[in-house]
Amino acid sequence: MIGPTDAARQWVIDPIDGTSNFVRGVSVWATLIALVEDGTPMLGVVSAPALGRRWWAVRGGGAFCGKIGASVDPLRDGIRLRVSDVASLDAASASITVTESWHRASKTTQLDSLQRDVKRLRNYGDFWQHMLVAEGAVDFAIDAIGLGPYDNAAIYPVVTEAGGQVSDRHGAPDYRSNSLITSNGRLHSAVIGVLEGDR
User: Fold this and answer.
1) Residue 182 neighbours by CB under 8 Å, 6+ apart
2) Is 52 helix (H, G, I), strand (E, B) or coil?
3) Residues 95 and 48 in one domain
4) Residue 3 falls inside a structural domain
């Protein structure tokens, strides 16, 4: 974070989201930049140079993606993002990052149940799974437990401006939480319900 922790406006930056991928030469890593005002992420930029892609959003202005190197004029060059309209878990495509942190949280039974409930399961990981939610290619994504604000802040505006929903694993929309779930919005309460053991 850049700026005092009690400042009304802060820049929240993750220089390399997907550090393990970067170190191993895997192309799925990005720089995440967010502007937070009064505790709300207002602007998010996710730039993935190795993939040649960039996603961006401003609160109230929509979410877009484009190629790196192209102008970032959303009205001229950006492709407007929109989440999917899948409304049931049995028709959903999901990306779930299961790490030891989920085992420590004693949530493996719920994750196993959720994985069996969906039509298609992948693990795209890190920022990418959440950008795929914003693009409508994935219906919901569950990230690892143990995240920081720098992992989450830029994701919030991109997914919400694409029409989706973002929260922590308990359903609270707080970018400072240590977990992150994104969805098309229609599936969010069902996903949280399974994770909370409501069924």
Assistant:
1) 129, 130, 133, 134, 140, 141, 155, 159, 164, 165, 166
2) coil
3) no
4) no
Which residues span the domain enclosing 32? 9-80
Count of domains forming the chain: 2
User: Helix, strand, or coil here: 39?
Assistant: coil
CA separation for the pair 199, 33 (Å, rounded): 37
Are 98 and 150 in a shared domain?
yes
CA distance 134 to 124: 14
Q: What is the pTM of this model?
A: 0.92
Residues in the chain: 199
Residue 63: which CATH number?
3.30.540.10
For 62-95, what is each residue's pLDDT tens digit?
Answer: 999 998 876 656 556 789 999 999 999 999 999 9
> Is the pLDDT score of 163 beyond 80?
yes
